[in-house]
Design brief:
By secondary structure, the chain is α/β, with parallel strands linked by helices. It is built from 23 helices and 13 strands.
């Protein structure tokens, strides 16, 4: 049964622009299916998506570089294509970016071009004609009342994912996998990405179906105390051991139908607790299938456990790395230090570049800029190189002759090693998890973060 005139598919980074388009269409009496307006809380997102497309006459597909990489948007496109072949479902691509010729969808259908804000009324009229199955004729403006949105800022060449994108990728994986491990380098716990992770989990599962387990600062080796604390924090039945804990989770699952469990700092748990938790999570997944999704976040020790440890549950989980820092995190860090000050996009971009996407460096540059408005940010480099924290990162290698020679060799290289070496080669592994190295643009290799290469050249007498 056709209930809607149009289903809108888009990447969440363009949400504001799309909402205005949807309101404009609704004001012209079109029945619009927009996820935030029509999704029923508690239902599976993929089922809601399929329902919306199947009950719609047309589909608007926002074509962007980010849409090309989005699992959700691809799923929606293929569902639309399936209905196009079955019953003539009309797919109307709209574009906001000029350089999208390499995106396959563009070559298959006639697009409506919204890339020029000045021509919004003309583009909107063309879209209305398409929805009504009419040719637009000679280009002219739509004459009714419209809210004119501003095109969102984007950088098609950026290799850095936004917080929403990485969160979306994780939950796309959880459509087919039951557990995901997220690895972070030193100082790379991202408040922005973390918040989007919880936002996405709440949207997909509902806040009442989300359990968040954070180990205490001091390790607890008494299982009864550990599970009692965790059950209280998540409002589960009081637990005195692993069996009670597993039963309490399954009781919650029985009431809600699905659960998402997010565990942070797993490697900070006592070894007995790690073994116990891994056993519980494995049983929950085996007995309940994809009704339970589990995300475990951690750093070097979690990666070691997952790749070389004795916990088979971690060995078989899907593995992902936290992405490199992006502008969202720059704004978040600046707001944390100077809550009453604004930050322009150009300055935020400069801070991101000069800090090499390293949180400790970023915070130093933010403070420096605030008190030295007339000086170049790069002027701080020569000061920070002598900082005690930087020296301590290199000091272990200065004291060991063999390591010292190896570091000197690496400092002369543009590419350090294949990215897989961060799990296997002892020296590369230590440099990577200490956040001195980063992925190259193609993610296949590891390279020095420019600041730390310069600092290394200084400490090893090579500059």
């Amino acid at each position: 049964m056709i209930k809607y005139d149009v289903f809108i598919s888009y990447n969440s980074d363009y949400k504001g622009w799309i909402e205005i388009l949807a309101k404009n269409l609704k004001s012209q009496k079109f029945r619009v299916f927009l996820d935030d307006w029509e999704f029923i809380a508690g239902n599976l997102i993929v089922e809601e998506m399929n329902r919306g497309i199947e009950q719609s006459k047309n589909g608007i597909f926002l074509v962007t570089h980010k849409a090309k990489k989005s699992g959700w948007v691809k799923n929606e496109y293929y569902k639309m294509l399936e209905l196009y072949n079955k019953r003539g479902f009309k797919i109307i691509p709209i574009i906001l970016e000029k350089d999208i010729s390499e995106i396959p969808f563009v070559n298959n259908f006639k697009c409506v071009d919204f890339s020029d804000d000045r021509l919004y009324r003309q583009s909107f009229r063309t879209l209305i004609c398409a929805l009504n199955g009419e040719a637009p004729g000679v280009p002219k403006d739509f004459q009714g009342d419209l809210e004119i949105p501003t095109s969102p800022l984007f950088n098609s060449n950026s290799i850095v994912q936004s917080g929403r994108e990485i969160a979306e990728d994780i939950f796309n994986i959880l459509h087919t996998k039951q557990s995901v491990l997220l690895f972070e380098q030193r100082d790379r716990v991202s408040v922005v990405i973390d918040s989007y992770l919880y936002e996405r989990a709440k949207k997909r599962y509902g806040s009442e179906n989300l359990l968040n387990f954070v180990p205490p600062l001091l390790p607890i080796n008494d299982l009864s105390v550990f599970y009692s604390e965790w059950s209280k924090k998540n409002k589960l039945d009081n637990c005195t051991g692993p069996v009670d804990f597993k039963n309490a989770i399954e009781k919650r699952l029985k009431n809600t139908g699905k659960l998402c469990i997010i565990v942070t700092c797993f490697e900070h748990c006592d070894w007995n607790v790690q073994k116990s938790l891994a056993s519980i999570f494995r049983s929950l997944n085996e007995e309940n299938g994809r009704k339970i999704s589990i995300i475990i976040c951690g750093g070097e020790k979690l990666a070691e456990l997952a790749n070389h440890g004795e916990l088979s549950y971690l060995n078989h989980a899907e593995k992902m790395d936290w992405p490199e820092m992006n502008l969202e995190e720059v704004y978040e860090a600046h707001q944390k230090i100077y809550p009453n000050q604004s930050l322009s996009e150009s300055i935020a971009s400069e801070l991101l570049e000069v800090s090499n996407g390293h949180m400790w460096l970023l915070e130093k540059y933010i403070v420096f800029r605030n008190s030295n408005l007339t000086e170049e940010l790069s002027a701080l480099n020569n000061v920070l190189i002598f900082d005690r924290n930087v020296f301590q990162l290199f000091s272990p290698y200065l004291e060991d002759k063999k390591k010292k020679n190896l570091i000197r060799q690496l400092l002369q290289e543009e590419t350090i090693a294949p990215s897989s070496y961060r799990y296997s080669d002892p020296l590369v592994k230590k440099l990577y998890w200490d956040n001195l190295l980063m992925f190259s643009s193609n993610n296949k290799n590891l390279t020095w973060r420019p600041f730390f290469k310069k600092a290394g050249l200084h400490y090893f007498g090579m500059s």
